[in-house]
Amino acid sequence: MGHARRRIVRRAARLAAVGGLLLGGTMVTRAVAGEPPGPSAAPRTLAQTASGAGAGLVARLGGDRTAGHWVDADGRPVVAVTDGSAAEAVRRAGATAKEVRHSMTELRSAAATLRSAPRVPGTAWALDYRSNEVVVRGDRTVSGADWSRLTGVAEGIGGFVRMERTEGVFTTRLNGAEPILSTAGRCSAGFNVTDGTSDFILTAGHCGPTGSVWFGDGKGDRQIGRTVAGSFPGDDFSLVEYAGGKAGDAADVVAVGGGKGVRITGTGEPAVGQRVFRSGSTSGLREGRVTALDATVNYPEGTVTGLIETDVCAEPGDSGGPMFSEGVALGVTSGGSGDCAKGGTTFFQPLPEAMAALGVRLVVSGRDGAAAGTSAPPATGAAGAGASGAGASAPATGAGGTPLLARLADRRNVGPGLLVVAGSLVALVATRWIRTEQDRKAYRRQYSATWN
């Protein structure tokens, strides 16, 4: 009986030691391989890394030898080049090169010629890096005569300007939804930002002029704030100052419906081909990909330039809502054509440009020293802004617990992990030694009993 009990104890000790080795090894390897966390660590996504590599190559080779860059389906950077030596330089850098006929200088010159032509409401154009063309689109409101005149301008530029008619109408996505309302109409709140003293909602500029008062429900019982700055047309962004000066709870969370949200970790610039998400108070959470950058749209109210073009759908009331990817804030909804039943094209105001013009920064809890501690509204009010991409959901009410794997990936766990490994090895050696000594004593007892 005693022998069986000792055997069980030894087996349990060995299992505990093996478990300790596995745990310690996991702590060390994940902490060494993982990206070090900290207030100064800027959030990076795979698409951002690939986009950064492509942008660096384009900047180094110049606009006469390149024609843009994008991210392919596997997340690798692709750079359009105009000559063989540039293609070789791109391949040496580990990116994919695609040789094209027209340089970025030519594409931008074509876009400038289109901008200088008489303005035609209901048209839009953007640089399509992948096809090496400037794509001009006209909605159903464009007359045959106006389309013919614009086609003549395109033909004068060259064969790399592609003309397309599109269903629907290019409109700013105003009216018809919650959560923020004013006499100018209804919009979706975008991201929460701060100037270090007061908190604001950064939303679309076409939602309402400076002085517009915004409410959080249809009865007008709860005032959210007042528009204090903005730019539209030309750009499409505005700043709504909270009535109490502060946003409230869950500033770093974007509401995506069903009481859930995603946490925003910072801001960035998108890449063509990147998967993105948009949240709006009419159509909820939608996804798609970036199809072009630096787009120009001739809305009935005026022309807006420098927009992000996507194939994400949107509907009236989604204006001003946030676009993000993997927890990185990218832009706010401007307008587009189509709907979420048939699909369409949606344009977004880039967020970094808007924040720089307004002199504000994103409210991100615990990340930015100046912004830490400020907070944003819950998901049921003006859509909270924050961090974390779609797919990394969090309760819309605030920060939850840290996932176990995230704790294991902390670089501070290297030391404790090594101690766990060392302790487990000592335990294994000790149990082995104890078993050997017990076996030796048992042999001696048996030998003595046999030869007594």
UniProtKB/TrEMBL annotation:
<dbReference type="Pfam" id="PF00089">
    <property type="entry name" value="Trypsin"/>
</dbReference>
<feature type="region of interest" description="Disordered">
    <location>
        <begin position="369"/>
        <end position="396"/>
    </location>
</feature>
<feature type="active site" description="Charge relay system">
    <location>
        <position position="319"/>
    </location>
</feature>
<feature type="active site" description="Charge relay system">
    <location>
        <position position="206"/>
    </location>
</feature>
<keyword id="KW-0472">Membrane</keyword>
<keyword id="KW-1133">Transmembrane helix</keyword>
<dbReference type="InterPro" id="IPR001254">
    <property type="entry name" value="Trypsin_dom"/>
</dbReference>
<feature type="domain" description="Peptidase S1A alpha-lytic prodomain">
    <location>
        <begin position="102"/>
        <end position="155"/>
    </location>
</feature>
<keyword id="KW-0865">Zymogen</keyword>
<dbReference type="GO" id="GO:0006508">
    <property type="term" value="P:proteolysis"/>
</dbReference>
<keyword id="KW-0645">Protease</keyword>
<dbReference type="InterPro" id="IPR033116">
    <property type="entry name" value="TRYPSIN_SER"/>
</dbReference>
<dbReference type="GO" id="GO:0004252">
    <property type="term" value="F:serine-type endopeptidase activity"/>
</dbReference>
<protein>
    <submittedName>
        <fullName>S1 family peptidase</fullName>
    </submittedName>
</protein>
<keyword id="KW-0720">Serine protease</keyword>
<keyword id="KW-1015">Disulfide bond</keyword>
<dbReference type="InterPro" id="IPR018114">
    <property type="entry name" value="TRYPSIN_HIS"/>
</dbReference>
<dbReference type="GO" id="GO:0005576">
    <property type="term" value="C:extracellular region"/>
</dbReference>
<feature type="disulfide bond">
    <location>
        <begin position="187"/>
        <end position="207"/>
    </location>
</feature>
<dbReference type="InterPro" id="IPR009003">
    <property type="entry name" value="Peptidase_S1_PA"/>
</dbReference>
<keyword id="KW-0732">Signal</keyword>
<feature type="compositionally biased region" description="Low complexity">
    <location>
        <begin position="369"/>
        <end position="382"/>
    </location>
</feature>
<feature type="transmembrane region" description="Helical">
    <location>
        <begin position="414"/>
        <end position="434"/>
    </location>
</feature>
<keyword id="KW-0812">Transmembrane</keyword>
<keyword id="KW-0378">Hydrolase</keyword>
<dbReference type="InterPro" id="IPR001316">
    <property type="entry name" value="Pept_S1A_streptogrisin"/>
</dbReference>
<feature type="domain" description="Peptidase S1">
    <location>
        <begin position="198"/>
        <end position="353"/>
    </location>
</feature>
<feature type="active site" description="Charge relay system">
    <location>
        <position position="236"/>
    </location>
</feature>
<dbReference type="InterPro" id="IPR043504">
    <property type="entry name" value="Peptidase_S1_PA_chymotrypsin"/>
</dbReference>
<comment type="similarity">
    <text>Belongs to the peptidase S1 family.</text>
</comment>
<feature type="disulfide bond">
    <location>
        <begin position="313"/>
        <end position="340"/>
    </location>
</feature>
<dbReference type="Pfam" id="PF02983">
    <property type="entry name" value="Pro_Al_protease"/>
</dbReference>
<dbReference type="InterPro" id="IPR004236">
    <property type="entry name" value="Pept_S1_alpha_lytic"/>
</dbReference>
